[in-house]
Amino acid sequence: MLPTSLTQPLRRLWTLESFAYSLRVFIALAGVMALCWYLDDMRKLIPLFLGIIASALAETDDTWQGRLQALLVTLVCFAVAAVSVELTFAHPAIFAVGLGVSSFGMTMLGAVGQRYATIATATLILAIYTMISLEQHGGVALGELWREPLLLVSGAAWYGAISVVWCALFSRHPLKLSLAHVFRELGVYLRLKSALFEPLRGMDIEQQRLALAQQNGRVVAALNQSKEMIFRRLEGQRGGRKLNRYLRLYFIAQDIHERASSSHYPYGALAEAFFHHDILFRAQRLLDQQGRACKSLSRALLLDRPFDHGPSAQALEDFNASLNNLHAQGRDEWRDLLGSLSALGDNLATLEDKLAGADNPDTRADHEDSSLFDRSPRGLRDVFERLQAHLSLASPVFRHALRLSVTLVVGYGLLHWIHPTQGYWILLTSVFVCRPNFGATRRFLRQRIQGTVLGLIAGWALITLFPTEPVQALIAVAAGVAFFATRAHHYTLATAAITLMVLCCFNQVGDGFGLIWPRLFDTLLGAAIAGLAVLVILPDWQGRGLHRQAATTLEASAAYLRAILDQYARGKRDDLAYRLARRNAHNADAALSTTLGNVLLEPGHFRKDADIGLRFLVHSHTLLSYLSALGAHRGTAGAAGDDNTAVTAAADDVAETLARVARQLAAGETVEPCQDTLTRHAGLLEASAAEETCDERRLLQSQLALISRQLVALSEAAGRLSTQASRE
């Protein structure tokens, strides 16, 4: 048994998402390095290393069977790409045509799915690695056409074998990390939400709402990742106790998300009415404690420890005591507000129950619908249909594919024109830097250049300080591991690490110092070509399509509202149709937040809509919060009230108005004013809520009134977006 002082750090390392990935890379690189030293043939080192890197870049989360199938496909693609480069390397015209066509085709595969996009990108990178390796050896020897492809594919197969074995041994570990990430992001969301209950007059609610909308995007991304990981493991394996436990935890996270994102009343009005009472402080503390409980649950999942949510349970008791004190005062002017606070209390009490159930998720009812929606292609016909749908200049995937292929062909022509030393690094830089939009390209361009400079300086210093080859070999392995440990979140450091690895590897077979200036020059040239391409070749300015993404958000919200109203009429059922409508609404909200983030990185002229878009995001996320509250309080069938046709008609009219604004915004048409109609509906619903004795019906009417009033501000923001779009 290892001492506790040693096991604790190891357990914490094991909980890091990049640790297992980096450890696999370390085993692969160290094994190849040891083999080359044993055989005394360091010339094989570079292609073997490059094959390992390409295979690691092609890796996607899967079961060991799925990973094995993906590996076989990847190795075939790698072999075809490497041999094609070998056969056409000496024929520049044919090579240029093949480079352009293949890069376009492989980029278009991104329209089929993320797994296809990952393998295709890695194949393109391996093709360029083949060019680099061939250039290092001075071209293709007729009797050794097999040499470079065999070494590259062997390196890829070696890492792939390690990955398959790892998946077989630790198939549940990535899923545990993913679910822990979900609850960690939910914890951040809840604590941000608690700030809205700060009992301050004149607080900047819009800024708080904006931060909440941006965090909601992170929660949605984490939920989507977990769903895909669970779905891949459920295929052919339904019924496993451990896997079903993770599935139930995922559904608990979804329920918590719906309740956490709910809003029951404008926060400014609550602060004004209860400024001298402690109810808002109690609500703030309860949400904060529940956020901390989510973070604690995340740690418990990672470390396999018991989960204790005691502090949040005490905070709920304190909130209920404060709420009961307000009810006991019986003040008429508080009646509507107290109804909303009571709904808030019920919502947070249910959220607390969900947190308590997370400690033993197996108690979740087995009869509930636990199906998940499969977004992956179903056969070749589906693949072709997805590709055909993107064969248009309006498709961002098509534009990026065309832009990248032109970038690589221009880079290839330029390196033949000026004949730079190690010129194929130009193409590699362009592949890593050229992104689908300007904002991402600018960010990666800057980080790539900074990382390259940092890596070259570090490489020069380390090669000088440690001239012996064994030490440099160890540095190369460590740098390769550092690249994969940092590439997801710290691209500058990752670029520095891979640059250092390249210098140390090349110094094993030649002069690493002679690579410093060519590497810097080629990086600058490749980055410049990619940056220019994004500016002039079918530029995909996110600001110009902002109104369409906003319309998609409204369409998804309208579908979510209709799904909620159907549940109020038929009774609560957490079936796939309802969960899909809810998830689509949150996905659209997250996509709008991401689009606005990209707009803010664009040149000044193209981000003139950013302020309008940010205001729209605040309003649309507020609308989603009101919808979430409706969804969170679904109950028995008939809650909509069959005898109240006026309320039902108003609800249908609100949903139709939301859909109509979405259609007008998508088409860039003038958004028709609907303030009078919506205000009338809001008044009708508020009057009905004031006379209603059934809590569930009163909540439905109150929330629909809030939605109606929110739609007034939302339609005005949509009108400004549409007007701005029509001027361009």
TrEMBL record:
Primary location group: membrane
Location relative to the cell: Cell membrane
Domain Integral membrane protein YccS N-terminal, chain residue ranges per copy: 71-355
Annotated transmembrane regions: 20-39, 70-87, 93-112, 119-138, 150-170, 448-465, 493-510, 516-538
Domain (Integral membrane bound transporter): residue spans on this chain: 413-530
InterPro entries from the UniProt entry: Integral_membrane_YccS, Integral_membrane_YCCS_YHJK, Memb_transporter_dom, YccS_N
UniProt cross-references to Pfam families, sorted A to Z: FUSC-like, FUSC_2
Recorded topology in the membrane: Multi-pass membrane protein
Keywords noted in UniProt: Cell membrane, Membrane, Transmembrane, Transmembrane helix
PANTHER family: INNER MEMBRANE PROTEIN YCCS, P-HYDROXYBENZOIC ACID EFFLUX PUMP SUBUNIT-RELATED
Family: Belongs to the YccS/YhfK family.
NCBIfam families, alphabetized: YCCS, YCCS_YHFK
Name of the protein this chain belongs to: YccS family putative transporter
